[in-house]
Amino acid sequence: MLTKRIIPCLDIKNGRTVKGVNFVDLRDAGDPVELAEIYAASGADELVFLDISATEERRKTLADLVYRVGEKVNIPFTVGGGISSIEDVDILLQNGADKVSINSSAVKNPQLINDLSAKFGAQCIVVAIDAKQIDGEWIVHLVGGKVPTELNLFDWAKEVEKRGAGEILFTSMNNDGTKDGFANEALNKLSTELNIPIIASGGAGSIQHFTDTFIKGKADAALAASVFHFKEIEIVDLKRQLKKENIPVRL
């Protein structure tokens, strides 16, 4: 059985790591380069770096900051924010990223998924999906959760897989920052209906929540931010507990 991955997420705004609740009320969480180095040394399996205001501000991801983070880590490193072309991905990979995450640009131009997958390989392409449950239906949102679309989460996820994405990073906007647990029902459906790995995001507040998302949600990886940034959960403690629960992790 493949090991389950624990992934700290660095949401970047103005060069600093930030964290909010339900995608708003952001507060400072520290220097991204320092945090990345700490996580790489403390047992994280991967890192995700999301320049959360790049799309809204119509600019590219901060390549120099990506380079400085990449210099400090020896684990897979995914970068997202403002990516809309093969050239954008080329620059980020040259600056130390191992994978890229696309979101709004994939919805606006689905062919981008095909093009990036063909050029760089599916293993390099993560499609991030931010969705909110409204009247029982999961609706995909863009631009850091600010713009609703007419897309259904599950339909879009299936299209993303067909177009060549290697992974899906699903963030539940309802759960984000609440520390009430992941959206395991939706995650279970995604994991059951798709054949590519699903990364759970949004809602981590306790070690039990990670256990639940791997067992109930069938997630392949779990991403979290504030519980790691503010040392509410230590990754080594989390992994030891998961191991006790017979969940395969890399210690």
Overall average pLDDT: 89
Count of DSSP-assigned helices = 10
Main beta sheet: strand number and arrangement?
8 strands, parallel, barrel
* CATH class membership: Alpha Beta
The CATH homologous superfamily is termed Aldolase class I
CATH topology call: TIM Barrel
Helix-strand category: alpha/beta
The tally of beta strands, per DSSP, is 12
| Number of separate domains | 1
Morphology call: globular
Q: Based on the structure given, which CATH architecture is correct?
A: Alpha-Beta Barrel
Distance between the termini: 15 Å
Notes on the structure:
This protein is α/β, with parallel strands linked by helices and 251 residues long. The protein has a single domain (5-244), classed as Aldolase class I (TIM Barrel). Helix content is 35%, strand content 28%. It has helices at residues 32-41, 63-72, 86-94, 104-108, 111-120, 153-162, 184-193, 207-215, 226-229, 235-244; strands at 5-13, 16-21, 24-30, 47-51, 77-80, 99-102, 125-134, 137-142, 147-152, 167-172, 198-201, 221-224. 48% of the residues are buried.
Characteristics:
single chain; 251 residues; alpha/beta; TIM Barrel; 8-stranded parallel β-barrel; 10 helices; 12 strands; 35% helix; globular
Summarize it.
With 251 residues, the chain is α/β, with parallel strands linked by helices. The chain has ten helices and twelve strands.
Detail the topology: elements first, then pairings.
Layout: E1 5-13, E2 16-21, E3 24-30, H1 32-41, E4 47-51, H2 63-72, E5 77-80, H3 86-94, E6 99-102, H4 104-108, H5 111-120, E7 125-134, E8 137-142, E9 147-152, H6 153-162, E10 167-172, H7 184-193, E11 198-201, H8 207-215, E12 221-224, H9 226-229, H10 235-244
Parallel strand pairs: 1-4, 1-12, 4-5, 5-6, 6-7, 7-10, 10-11, 11-12
Antiparallel strand pairs: 1-2, 2-3, 7-8, 8-9
Helix pairs in contact: 1-2
